[in-house]
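Assess the record.
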Amino acid sequence: MKSHQVAYILAGSNLGNRQANIQRALSALGELGAMPRKQSSCFETEPVGHPGQPWFINVAAEIETLLTPHELLHCCQKTEESLGRVRTFRNAPRTLDLDILLFESIVLDEPCLIIPHPRMAGRRFVLTPLAQIAPDFIHPVLKQSIRSLLTCCADHSEVRLYQPGNAGDVPR
């Protein structure tokens, strides 16, 4: 019999009602067998990789699941699609982005799935919310806590607590 496992995901949105998109996504994941147990505050984050687009809201969530990493990836992609994600180009604006950051202490490097997320240690918009809910989790490759990775992060893009009612939250 399978036992529950813990994974950490990052949910992000910069189109439409960003906060509602993330909350709908976390609810949908729960219905698919990836139950959110903890979530960070909402952080408003400067877009990285493709400037000139709306700022994101990002939330880290601890997920409890019986799913395998590949099944969780499928659930994340299905949820993104159901909430209107259209993949036009890398780092394009999007209604929803769900990234698996960590899955237990599993290290996986396959063409369709890399765990831990390969760029998480260099991204303040990932580490800030993740450090809020899992500061002492040890990155299985880098052998450092999330808190330590955030302290050493060279990314200086802006990450701030989200204030509801910002102009960026308009239905599209």
Notes: The chain is about 25% helix and 25% strand. The mean pLDDT is 90.
